[in-house]
Each structure stands twice: as structure tokens, then as C-alpha cells.
Amino acid sequence: MINIVLFGKPGAGKGTQAEFLKQKYNLMHLSTGDIFRYNIQNDTELGQLAKKYMDKGDLVPDAVTIKMLEDIVNKNLNSAGFLFDGFPRTLAQALELDDFLSKKDWKVTATIALEANDEILINRILERGKTSGRTDDQDEEKIKHRYQEYNEKTAPLIEYYKKQNKFYPINGIGSITEITERLSKVIDNL
What is the tens place of the pLDDT at every residue in 116-136? Predict the structure, then answer.
């Protein structure tokens, strides 16, 4: 069982890389963004709640996020492993994830961070916003707010995973193939 946390600011390429990694390593891809959008599109109670936060560029509360993820993991217990994309985003979520996984005798194997400078990432998101239909991808102020949220709430996870020797920073600039090769090299050596 291999459980990877794919880490990085919005626009770093987590979703793009997750598509390659899930196939190469036979992992179940758990994208909190996709899970939120599914619940929003299907107008579930959790989706309505998540939308209120996402529309402001805020993080969805831990309890909502964790409930959505636990449901999916529990429906896919025979998976070779999980690729967590966009989760955990806070120290509290990381602790909840560790607790949830330990109850199944599993653990986070590695946290791999796609790193890139904010200006490049903002341009990527604005470009994505032209076709994604996501309102939070079309407003530079909302994007900057998401980065502020990331810096305040998510960046502290770097130290948490470094202390466990599970943190691997990867240069997120380059072609998709180059970045995939960098990620694969880390995973192959775990």
C-alpha cells in the first residue's frame, strides 16, 4: 500500500500529474477539488456547504472535507494505494488523515510538493479559468486570497512531513513529461 500526498499551491499542476501517477502506480486518485465539484454539481448538502466557502476562495472546513474523503476511501479498500490531491491542507487535516489511515494499519508514505513561483502559478490559473468555468480561477484577487490561505494554513505541513522524513520537494516548472519523470524518480525510490 502506497499513499502519496501530492502537495502544492493552486495551479502547481497537481491534477495534471495525478492523472499520470494514478495510472503508472495503480493508485486511487482522491482530488478534494473534484470531490467538492461533484458534490456541488449534484447539489448535495455537503456540496452546498463547500460552495459557500469555495466561492469566497476560503478553504472548506475540515469536518466536511474529511467526511467526503473517508466515504470514498471506505468504498475502495482494495486499492493499491491512494493519491491525495489537495488534502491535507491544514495540520488538523494531516492529523485526522494519519489517525484515519492508522485505524486501517496504513500510513502516508510520502508527501511530494510541486514547487513554482507565485507569478507563474497565477498565470496558469487565469489561463485555466478561461476554460474551466470555475469562478475562483477567473479572479486574480481570489487567487491571491487562496495563496494567502495556503501560506497561513497549508505551508506549516511542510515541517510536519519533514520531521517524519516524508517530504520531497519537486521543481514544478518544465514540461509535463519532465515533471512526471521527477515525480516518478521519487516514488520509485520510496
Answer: 888 888 888 888 888 887 777
* Pairwise pLDDT comparison (3 vs 57), residue with the higher score: 3
Residue list, annotated binding site for AMP: 32, 37, 58-60, 86-89, 93, 134, 146
Q: Quote the Cα angle for 100-22-47, to 5°.
A: 55
Structural domain for 45, as ranges:
2-183
Mean pLDDT value across residues 86-113: 93
* Per-residue pLDDT at 82 exceeds 80: yes
Annotated binding site: 11-16, 32, 37, 58-60, 86-89, 93, 128, 134, 146, 174
Strand partners, 30: 84
CATH number reported for the structural domain that contains residue 124 in this entry: 3.40.50.300
Q: How many domains are contained in the chain?
A: 1
**Phi-psi category of 43—alpha, beta or left, where left has phi over 0 and alpha has psi -120 to 50?**
left
Q: Provide the annotated binding site for ATP.
A: 11-16, 128, 174
Q: Model's pTM, two decimal places?
A: 0.82
